[in-house]
Amino acid sequence: MNITARIIALGLPILLAGSALLAAAPGFAADAPAAAGPAVSDANVFNRNLKKTADPNPAPWEDGIHDPDNEATHSLQPPKEAYQGLPTTPFGNHVDWVKSIDGGLIKPRWDRMNSNEEPFVMDLDIVRPVKASMPDVVFPHRQHTEWLFCSNCHPAIFVPQKGANQISMSAILLGQKCGVCHGKVSFPITTTSCKKCHSKAKPEGWTPPLSDATVKNPWK
Length: 220
Fold this sequence. Notes:
It contains 6 helices and 3 strands, in the order αααββααβα. With 220 residues, the chain is mainly α.
């Protein structure tokens, strides 16, 4: 090893040790870039369902979805003009779509290519009991299948089997299960829309079920 290599070998550890001591000294400010902050959690993304929009039916060039600089965007019919004469509701975009269909005011096209294709409508209500004091949930297939095909929901979102789907309000508010559509293209979940789904009253004399812990160790 030549003299230059020896100087480097001996001096490098001393240089590194000195740098460490200097960095630890009070008042020392390094020029290193600031560390990135913690990653923002997406735990509260469900708040989109609880926020009130200033205008639920903006014109296409004002909705933040269409390109306002595209001339074709301005040729689209504004929702407020298209929705005139339809039944209203305080929820979502303020149009009661079920009443609109039932009243014959609109007729969703079942097939994109064939306007004469008739929908496959299933008139079947599914009742989901709720353990708490809230009324039970009634899911009406008819109102959904007048718009949607079975494969829109089954089996990717809901497994068509009794007891196979665990549904909670937390999951819905996070955009899962019912929340895949509700809050996006259907009426949102708000503190005033509960009864649209929780619509079946508890039977007379109903009492909340006791937990296993309460049954095994009753209060004395």
